[in-house]
Amino acid sequence: MQVCEGDEIVVNVDNLLRNGEGVSIHWHGVHQRRTPYMDGVAQLTQCSIPAYTSFQYRFKADTPGTHFWHSHSGLQRADGLFGKLVIRQTPADDPNSHLYDFDLPEHEIIVTDWLNEPMMNEFPAHHHKQLNPLNTKGSRNLIPISNVKSLAPDDKSLNDPDMQLYLSFDFYKVDSTLFHDPSLYPIRAIEMGKHLYTPQVNHISAILPPSPPLTQYYDVPQNLICNETTRRNCDKEYCECVYMYKIPLGNVVEMVLIDEGVTFDASHPFHLHGYRFRVVAMDRVNKSGVTADDVRRLDREGLIARKLSGAPLKDTVTVPDGGYTIIRFHADNPGIWFFHCHIAFHAEIGMAVVMQVGEPTDFPYPPYKFPRCGNFAHTRGAEPPPGEEYLESIGRRNRARYGSHHTDSGASDKSLGCILAVFCCFCAFFRLT
Ligand SMILES: [Cu+2]
């Protein structure tokens, strides 16, 4: 996709996937100001688009740059459901235009890992490879954050934060219900090298709710929502929930991201929807592992220098294994925004957090007849009356809706008729006089 800054992008998605698989498309790099329901995160900003149905995305291309679009459902992105999204500027507006003799749409490449089998086959036994061996500490090639300068002017996101969140993560040896039944197949009974560790943030696995909180806020069961202030003992027993933080609209938020780095030598690229953030600090502390308490102590002792002018602006940033990355953003875009590791394997089984920015009254209205979804559980008290009684109640409802001569609410029909007759007489009377 090649568009110009300020264009309105309209994309009709027809889901022709087999096996009833749902889909949604995220426009990675577009902040969806005023259109958060077009962000394409299934079950957070919209319902999954069911098979053999279509959905129209419509939003403004207001973030120039080289982005991409991709499925935000299951492992579809890793299986190839993605593409380029370039929002172009005039050469006069593009700060990099002097670097190119020709800046043409055909001069683009997009790179991906490609497997000759479905990603799901790789899922249970995934392995990690280090993709960037160059930018390592102690090498001549190291580029520290202090040497990277944003071309964008400083803004509110670099102010003193109103709130600070510590998010630490790793792969944990926990009896995740996805992999291990503690009574039959506990992880501690598995032989070394065959463990399936669970990627979590603050020892919580994020799950997606049955209805999207952005458009059906009050349909999300409250008992599904948690964060580490409402759930305890998650470092000992498996915890999963719709992992959500509430951020007051307008706050400056600092997030201290810590890759504890004990289990594997793996870095995690974290992506925030709805915003660009400033990367104010990043370092690898200890290759064999670091804790949130270690990072708090370093900060207290003044050993973490923050870059508070010209800090790089990103929407995705890696967190070094055994280290930290500190980001700041100004929460001025109300909505429900996903914050997650961008490795599909990790995000899909819970390495994610949901940021609620503002109250539901601050969220822009979704378009007319925006699709809805949710739980249709059979619950006591909502049981339909059986047999004839039920059919009769349906008939009664239909008659009330469509009208019938054989209505059992005839009294009210008659009174309506009387009122109409009086009204007509009244009109006739005044016309005659
Ligand atoms: Cu990850």
Automatic annotation (TrEMBL):
Keyword list, A-Z: Copper, Metal-binding, Oxidoreductase
Alphabetized SUPFAM superfamilies for the sequence: Cupredoxins
Keyword Cytoplasm: no
Xref: Pfam families: Cu-oxidase_2 (PF07731), Cu-oxidase_3 (PF07732)
CDD domains linked to this entry: CuRO_1_tcLCC2_insect_like, CuRO_3_tcLLC2_insect_like
Sequence ranges assigned to domain Plastocyanin-like in this UniProt record: 2-90, 227-358
Keyword Oxidoreductase on entry: yes
InterPro entries named among the record's database cross-references: Cu-oxidase-like_N (IPR011707), Cu-oxidase_C (IPR011706), Cu-oxidase_fam (IPR045087), Cu_oxidase_CS (IPR033138), Cu_oxidase_Cu_BS (IPR002355), Cupredoxin (IPR008972)
Family indicated by similarity: Belongs to the multicopper oxidase family.
Name of the protein in question: L-ascorbate oxidase-like
